[in-house]
Specification:
The protein is mainly alpha-helical. The chain has 2 helices and no strands.
């Protein structure tokens, strides 16, 4: 795992937690913000995964 994957996963977890709190409070704006944070985390984690795949591919091509 790289830093983007870790940070993205953290944002997803925090967003889910914030969404639950906002739901309990009945705060629709808070729910929306929490979902945005989760989406941001998904994007960041996906970027991290892509970087990892590219790095692995480059390492394989160098050693070949």
């Amino acid at each position: 795992m790289n830093k983007d994957q870790i940070a993205g996963t953290c944002k997803i977890v925090i967003g889910k937690f914030e969404e639950k709190l906002a739901t309990l409070r009945g705060d629709r704006a808070g729910q929306h913000h929490a979902r945005q944070k989760q989406t941001e985390g998904d994007i960041q984690r996906t970027i991290g995964e892509a970087r990892q795949i590219i790095n692995r591919s480059l390492k394989r091509n160098v050693s070949a």
